[in-house]
Amino acid sequence: MPAQRPALMPLLNVHDGAAAVEFYKAAFGAEVLFMITEGSVVANLAIGGAEFWLADDSPQHHNFSPQGLGGSTVRLVLVVDDPDALFARAIAAGAQQVWPVEDQHYRWRMGRVVDPFGHHWEIGKPLR
Amino acid sequence: MPAQRPALMPLLNVHDGAAAVEFYKAAFGAEVLFMITEGSVVANLAIGGAEFWLADDSPQHHNFSPQGLGGSTVRLVLVVDDPDALFARAIAAGAQQVWPVEDQHYRWRMGRVVDPFGHHWEIGKPLR
User: Fold this and answer.
1) Which listed residue, of A23, A27, A98, B26, carries a Cα 20 to 30 Å from A17's Cα?
2) What mean pLDDT is predicted for residues B59-66?
3) What is the ipTM of this complex?
4) pLDDT of residue B4
5) How many whole angstroms separate alpha carbon A14 and alpha carbon A28?
């Protein structure tokens, strides 16, 4: 049995998991790798192979959604080949611009959106 | 120039970035790939090659820490070869157990801790 290479995946707590899956498919072209919908939603998604998870919030288990808390505590840094195109696609799907895609002083081309579930995405790529 | 393979990295907002870097080094053996400390802290860390970022919180820019909001909105799923050992190391470094490492009905061996900065980590691996 080969050793497990360490992996780190964010698990987004959302107020409406089923709607969030549809949003991430439309906004980022996410693929659904795994999903359970009995009781509450848990889903494993991937954006061009980059995996993340989401689940319905459950404050009684310390799983708060941004809508429930009034803000988010983790940003999602999404590195892609064409941040301008993916940013535009996310806005078209219903995300809101926090700041536009621009060349930043830290030598990334990057912009930031907040999605309808309150999660913040920084979409960009390093400048070379 | 080769195409950028999509990557997704969580960026943890924390109340004290410098202390958080030290904690993640002790708790998870994290390696510091990049760090700026002028003004506020921004750091790029890796756990066995699995990258994440952290930054000092700045509520005026929508970057809330779990301590500031009273909870966290994203869980960190950390997949490693020996979750029992890493869980114990995190506890020894100052994390608190939410639930212990056990074989779960969803066929992962997994446990959950909350770190001193309020971020929740689910540490485990798939059962085969």
Assistant:
1) A98
2) 98
3) 0.96
4) 73
5) 17
